[in-house]
Amino acid sequence: MISDAYKYHGAALAFLIDSLNKPLMIEKAYDDKHGFFLICGQCPLYLKFSRTRRGYWSFSFSDEQQFLCSELAEKYGDCIVGLICGADGIVGIKHEQMRQLIHFSLEKSENVSVKRKLSGTYLVSGSKGKLKHQLNRNSLPTAIGDYIK
């Protein structure tokens, strides 16, 4: 049986390939950690998903997930987080933006929430604060495209 994680991650990676319209090499960033990918050998991507259908999506980041994102950002200069909001869309958040949202305390879980009104952009907030600018449905391919030019 195909797990939900494979379905959502596969859809996100297919969306990324179609949006960037160029060949991409995708590999696992960690052999034993699910959801962490390395795009073209230079851009880390961490994908999380929420099954909620629309309006409000919540994502929890364990201390280990925070550490791994920070570790990848330190090694490669960034770690893009892709928040898959059910079938609605995917929000791409750069590591510096994630630092505005959560504390990266590495001692406890932190939460990020994504909201979107009908035909609107995504408002992203976390336990530390919120992003000043809302993100659109192309924020993931834009963040990756900026990184792998």
Distance between the termini: 37 Å
Low-confidence stretches: none
Q: Which architecture does the CATH hierarchy give at level 2?
A: 3-Layer(aba) Sandwich
Helix/strand order, N-terminal first: HEEEEHEEHEEH
Tell me the structural class. alpha+beta
Counted up, domains total: 1
Number of beta strands:
8
CATH third-tier fold name: Trna Endonuclease, Chain: A, domain 1
Q: What does it look like?
A:
The chain is 32% helix and 30% strand. It is of the alpha+beta class. The chain has one domain: Trna Endonuclease, Chain: A, domain 1. A hairpin with a 3-residue loop joins strand 5 and strand 6. Helix 1 (4-20) packs across helix 4 (139-147). The protein is globular, with a radius of gyration of 14 Å.
